[in-house]
Design brief:
Oligomer: heterodimer
Largest sheet of chain A: 5 strands, parallel
Helix content of chain A: 40-55%
CATH superfamily of chain A: Monomethylamine methyltransferase MtmB
Strand content of chain A: 5-15%
Number of helices of chain A: 8
Order of helices and strands of chain B: HEHHEEHEEEEHEEH
Helix content of chain B: 40-55%
Number of helices of chain B: 6
CATH topology of chain A: TIM Barrel
Strand content of chain B: 5-15%
Chain lengths: 245, 201
């Protein structure tokens, strides 16, 4: 609420309120909703169901994810719901299991409702690494093909290390989405079956990557040549798997 | 059951004061896992090895299971230790009246968010940013500018400033309020410096 101020958020910006895991809420959030509704703000209801948590396995977590989506529009009167199925062990949204939950949930709500949905990106690897770019690409393909309206990220290095996010990860997210839009679903699934094995064996030893100030020129806000080369390499690898940019 | 009026946060609050009492442990460790297990079996859910589904019958079963999960369980309020239940008609009322599109941002930098479908030829909106990642105070502006400078990025999602005027923004202190305002103002400035002052955040 404090960010609704002179020089701050406008009604046409997304105003966040978060549900709690799983199918829970606190009264502070309910008060925040009253403020947003009174201002006619765009409301973004957020929640990240946990695979391996209270709900259980893949299908069980997807059931909770559907219920959470619906609740965003019943309880929060949301404009859109920001999803983000996350793996309990790896803290990542890009694992095989969490991509299945996200893909099935989004395709289902796209097919049977008019709810608008986004997804959050939390890869294991840090910026300026090929692994980070491949992880987020798998999610962007899943989100784009399953009918997601908004892709939101990227919180590289699981979103827990200071200054380890840059615009380059978002560029890849956008480019992959553009390349995936309109692709045959079976072709998307085929590429994902080849792409995920390229990184899933490395979760425990994911490269930490570089901080923003180590892979960008701060004065000109330009990525280093090293990062541009890594980006080009990851893009080439995706092309070899069948993605056409 | 016909509802007396549409569900909203005020009605939710009233129900959160008088709904059925339950401990949070019972909700987390009994209600949620038992119901998901029951619904998975009832609807025969099995995603096999597909990431993006092609089996529409299975998707319909998943929708029914998710709907039933919310209808039967409701939502647990952690502050009152009570369960808020909705009727089936109240849920359909919300689903039948969702906002089908909206605009983020202003002027030529505004983007329209519209419903997409499975296999849609239009790409989704790209909301670029640290997504809640911790960002140092001195890097906050250039980090967010790096997103606004990317044409693939349509709107910005913020990072969390780790200090404001050198102090940590501890919850329920004045610095928390200052940090919230400063984050938003700096992101707006970062977008403006990138030549996109109307970008949604």
């Amino acid at each position: 609420m404090a960010s609704d101020c002179a020089g701050g958020q406008l009604s046409s910006d997304s105003h966040e309120v978060s549900q709690l895991n799983e199918l829970k809420i606190d009264l502070d959030a309910i008060c925040v909703m009253a403020h947003y509704q009174g201002n006619s703000d765009i409301i973004m209801d957020e929640q990240m169901p946990i695979f391996g948590g209270y709900a259980g396995g893949i299908e069980e977590t997807a059931i909770v994810d559907i219920a959470t989506h619906i609740n965003a529009f019943v309880m929060s009167n949301a404009s859109w719901h920001l999803d983000g199925p996350v793996h309990i062990r790896w803290g990542s949204t890009n694992t095989r299991e969490t991509l299945q939950i996200a893909g099935w949930t989004c395709a289902t709500i796209s097919e049977f409702t008019d709810m608008l949905s986004g997804n959050q990106y939390y890869p294991c690897a840090g910026p300026c690494t090929e692994m980070c770019l491949l992880e987020l690409s798998a999610q962007s393909m899943t989100d784009t093909a399953s009918g997601r309206e908004i892709q939101s990220g990227v919180a590289a290095a699981k979103g827990v290390v200071q200054d380890k996010t840059t615009g380059m990860e978002a560029r890849m997210m956008g480019e992959v989405a553009r390349a995936t839009a309109g692709m045959d679903i079976s072709e998307v699934n085929d590429i994902l079956h080849k792409l995920i094995p390229l990184y899933e064996k490395d979760y425990a030893s994911a490269p930490e990557g570089k901080r923003f100030q180590e892979c960008y020129d701060i004065a000109t806000v330009t990525p280093t040549d090293e990062y541009v080369d890594i980006y080009a390499g990851a893009r080439k690898k995706l092309e070899e798997l069948g993605l056409v940019f | 059951m016909t509802y007396s009026r549409s569900m909203n946060c005020f009605e939710f609050y009233d129900r959160a004061k008088k709904g059925e009492k339950l401990s949070q442990d019972d909700w987390d460790l009994m209600t949620i896992p038992m119901k998901t297990m029951e619904l998975k079996q009832k609807y025969g859910l099995d995603f096999k090895d597909e990431f993006v589904p092609t089996d529409k019958d299975m998707m319909e079963n998943l929708f029914k299971a998710g709907f039933e999960m919310l209808l039967d369980c409701g939502i647990y309020c952690t502050d009152t230790s009570r369960i808020v239940k909705y009727t089936e008609d109240e849920i359909w009322d919300a689903l039948n009246n969702v906002q089908k599109e909206f605009t983020l941002g202003t002027g030529r930098d505004a983007v329209n968010v519209r419903k997409r479908n499975v296999g849609d030829k239009r790409r989704p909106i790209t909301q670029g940013g640290p997504t809640g990642s911790p960002i140092s105070e001195d890097m906050f502006m250039p980090v967010h500018m790096s997103y606004a400078l990317e044409k693939e990025v349509d709107t910005i999602v913020n990072g969390v400033m780790m200090t404001v005027r050198g102090k940590p923004p501890i919850p329920k202190t004045p610095y928390e309020v200052l940090a919230a305002k400063t984050e938003t103002r700096l992101i707006k400035q970062a977008a403006a410096m990138a030549g996109r002052p109307g970008m949604g955040i």
